From TrEMBL:
The lineage of its organism: Bacteria, Bacillati, Bacillota, Clostridia, Eubacteriales. InterPro entries: Calcineurin-like_PHP, DNA_Repair-Maintenance_Comp, Metallo-depent_PP-like, Mre11_N, SbcD, SbcD_C. The gene is sbcD. Belongs to the SbcD family. CDD domains: MPP_Mre11_N (cd00840). This is Nuclease SbcCD subunit D. Residues 290-376 form the Nuclease SbcCD subunit D C-terminal domain. It comes from Clostridium niameyense. Heterodimer of SbcC and SbcD. One of its GO terms (molecular function) is 3'-5' exonuclease activity.
Length: 403
């Protein structure tokens, strides 16, 4: 059986207010081509389809159009689980229509996929947290655990009559208990797989992931993952990585770098070939970096302008750090952005003695001049007219109050 594993699409996500939709569309076009060219039997999308629980209409339309093409109108299985960014009810709202196309949408650990026969595959058995499918002449049992919040996890594991002692088990132990229970569905005559959207202890995160571990309380120990699984497809972490201490559990990472902390990552998909009783053969399929994120450090505004001119026609997202001993005024910012329109952020790095501001003779300077210098000392930019007006209004009101 040939499987393609991906996750963390985050459709609709912005970068500091800049849309990434065009990059996401290019990725999905390439992904569809890879699926067709690689003769994929099963596509697994391991959560965080969208960037938030109320995605824009364009993102939803893009998802539905893409997964329909990925499934080949029911030719192959597309298994989708929700992540911590997704609204599970919204994700599975289209299940009746998607199911007819071979697209299996799973919102919570309690989601049950109906049995059914399709052109190239059959759903033989299913229940909370698992499905058994037959693709061509091969059978596979897949343990499925969409993002398990505390509430959803307890709903699956415990009944109302269960005592508090059971409920006080650690999150990791409860996840392990559920995996142990579901692993009983694995058989010697089936390909045995797992898919979940969780944070496994030891994983390397970036600053674009919404934390789900809450200081470690919602992290899962690697030894609690299903040991009999031949391959475990995980979602949540944006850096492609193998789970430490486990032979066959992987995060694919996000397909696009979603923050400057991800700019050094090589983005990829996992192509998995596996047969009954055999070890999974895993290959990385690398993805184009459609619009790189770069961070420049310039010694002056003039150098920044020159570098922008030299790279004017390169398509990138740019974080610009500029060392300066003067204001970066509105005209400077306008000039930079006219050359490079996709400057995400300009960060002044003020070269100034830490004690210089405090040592100045404040008696000889006006209130407005002192405020301008203070503002520049803190932010590296001169205050706008609106900011100055607001400050002076507040200062005047304070003087009147004291009088």
């Amino acid at each position: 059986m040939r499987i393609l594993h991906t996750s963390d699409w985050h459709l609709g996500k912005n970068l500091e207010g800049f849309s990434r939709i065009e990059e996401q569309e290019k990725f999905l076009e390439d992904f569809i081509d890879i699926v067709e060219q690689s003769s994929i039997d099963l596509v697994i999308i391991a959560g965080d389809i969208y960037d938030n629980s109320n995605p824009p209409a364009r993102a939803e339309k893009m998802f539905y159009n893409s997964v329909k093409k990925i499934s080949g109108d029911g030719k192959r299985v597309v298994l989708v689980i929700s992540g911590n960014h997704d609204n599970p009810e919204r994700l599975i709202a289209a299940s009746p229509l998607a199911y007819d196309e071979g697209i299996l949408l799973m919102g919570t650990p309690k989601t049950i996929i109906p049995k059914g026969v399709f052109s190239n595959f059959e759903i033989i058995d299913s229940g909370e947290g698992f499905i058994e499918i037959k693709i061509k002449d091969e059978k596979a049992v897949i343990i499925t655990l969409p993002y398990p919040s505390e509430k959803r996890l307890n709903e699956v594991l415990y009944k109302e009559i269960d005592d508090d002692e059971k409920r006080q088990k650690s999150y990791s132990d409860r996840i392990g208990e559920l995996f142990d229970k579901l692993s009983l569905k694995y058989r010697d005559d089936t390909i045995n797989l797992g898919v979940s959207h969780i944070f496994v202890n030891g994983g390397e995160s970036s600053d674009s992931e919404r934390p789900i571990q809450l200081g470690g309380s919602l992290a899962v120990d690697a030894d609690r993952l299903p040991k009999q699984a031949q391959y475990i497809a995980l979602g949540h972490l944006h850096k492609p990585q193998k789970v430490k201490g486990i032979e066959n559990a992987y995060y694919t990472g996000s397909p696009i770098p979603y923050s400057k902390s991800e700019r050094g990552y090589s983005k990829c998909l996992k192509l998995v070939d596996v047969e009954v009783g055999g070890k999974a053969k895993i290959q990385d399929i690398y993805i184009n970096n459609y619009k790189p994120i770069e961070v420049w450090h310039c010694s002056s505004v003039e150098q920044a302008l020159e570098k922008c001119k030299e790279n004017q026609h390169r398509d990138m997202w740019l974080y610009l750090h500029i060392k300066t001993d003067r204001y970066i005024n509105g005209e400077d910012i306008k000039a930079l952005k006219e050359i490079k329109r996709d400057i995400v952020e300009i960060v002044p790095e003020v070269q100034q003695d830490e004690n210089e501001f405090m040592q100045r003779d404040v008696k000889e300077k006006s209130m407005s001049q002192l405020f301008k210098e203070f503002y520049f000392n803190q932010r590296g930019l001169e205050p706008t007219k609106e900011t100055m007006d607001l400050f002076l209004t507040i200062a005047e009101e304070e003087e009147e109050h004291e009088a």
